[in-house]
Amino acid sequence: MKVLVTGAAGQLGRDMAIRFAACGHEIVGVSRRDLNVARRDEVLGVVGAVQPDAVVNCAAYTAVDDCETNVDRAYAVNAVAVRNLAEAARRFDAHLCHVSTDYVFSGDKPEPYHEWDQPDPRSVYGASKLAGEQEAGEAATVVRTSWLCGSHGANMVGTVLRLAAEDGPMRFVSDQRGSPSFTPDVAAVIERLCVDRRPGLYHVTNRGEASWYEFAREIMEAAGHDPGRIEPIATAELVPPRPAIRPVNSALENRALTLAGVESPGDFREPLRRLVAVLVDQ
To answer: Which of 103, 113, 125, 213 is catalytic?
Structure first.
């Protein structure tokens, strides 16, 4: 396959390109500098020139708090851009895979969310990403993932390792839960879904769930540091308070993958140990 990856400079985009190349596919990666996905003419021009078999959209405006005040930009990048890519995919007979987020849910459900649960976003970011899912179209693959960590960008693992090298306090919220997920594992599942050209909505996360506080302790333990240095804090105690509402529970269940007979990524602790080893050596 020839695969066009948008957002190729981001942590998931870079591991998507690595995965597809390792599986023998021809990769064309474009970053924000190469392509403004919110501009229809640019999207049609690039997709028409590349003539890909698949388009994997990893481009997104993910500054959750900034989205609250930059509403137009959030919808332009997270929704209108998907409309443009879906149109281009139809016109040039490419399969579209669009990456979405756990923030499409309210967080009120006590159990992990599956694909048939009703979305109810509480932030502009979540609402704009839900709009992007709706723009992708019935023929597309839509992948929701969460709490992404990889070796090519800023994320929770890198943050904890950086703070562990300093002397200051290490406090993380204990009242938000989710599914820590790792970009190489997510990329592997997306590659299979694209090769199969499977339409529909899939949750793709590593198994296991944790609060940010518990996840930070797991990171410290994987790095050989004292997890007791991590202190819990409530979201309401954060100073300054965050503008965007975070879901209290955004853990995802990969129900559609299981029912489709596609193997889900394994427990998050194993790829966490691998990532820690890579980042410590850098």
So the answer is: 125
